[in-house]
Amino acid sequence: QVQLVEYGGGLVQVGGSLRLSCAASGFTFGTTQMNWYRQAPGAPVKERELVARISGASAWRNYLDSVKGRFTISRDNAKNMVYLQMNNLKPEDTAVYYCNAWIDPNDYWGQGTQVTVSS
Questions:
Q1: Residues 115, 95: contact at Cβ < 8 Å?
Q2: Rounded to an integer, what distance in angstroms lies between the CA atom of residue 61 and that of residue 16?
Q3: Which of the two ends of the chain, N or C, has the fewest CB atoms closer than 10 A to its terminal CB?
Q4: What is the CA radius of gyration of the chain?
Q5: For residues 102, 108, 114 and 119, what is the CA-based torsion angle, rounded to 10 degrees?
Q6: What is the pLDDT of residue 112?
Q7: pLDDT digits (tens, 9 = 90+) for 99-117
């Protein structure tokens, strides 16, 4: 079955960096677009926002405007891993970050990893 497991979150000071990782299994990873979402504290599930996404062959990447230039999404298809490098973190980046994949007809999510940026 499809599994997405995130790790790498934590508490960091403003301006710091974190690298999130997502281990994927149970599907053809190399041809699947992978996404990172986040859900701010107290926000409902429907307000999860798409932070970054990457095509199967890493041919393109897209980012939320507020993270452009600070976050980088990447993937290693040999290891079935997707990453989110987050630099120059700000308090407004505090959220639970989720790895996501749409594998028709279902939408799959990891359990999430908490990122807290303290000022």
A1: yes
A2: 23
A3: N
A4: 13
A5: 20
A6: 97
A7: 999 999 999 999 999 999 9
What 3-state DSSP class applies to 65?
A: helix
Average pLDDT, integer, range 35-52: 95
Spatial separation of the C-alpha atoms in residues 37 and 67, rounded to whole Å: 12
pLDDT for 48 equals: 95
DSSP string, 67-109: GTTTEEEEEETTTTEEEEEE-S--GGG-EEEEEEEEETTEEEE
| Residue 22 amino acid letter | C
Burial category of 40 from C-beta neighbours within 10 Å (exposed 0-12, middle 13-18, buried 19 and up) = middle
Comparing CA positions, the residue from 51, 30, 29 lying closest to residue 39 is 51
Instruction: Render pLDDT for 2-25 as a digit per residue (tens, 0 to 9).
Output: 999 999 999 999 999 999 999 999
Whole-angstrom Cα distance, residue 73 to residue 75?
A: 7
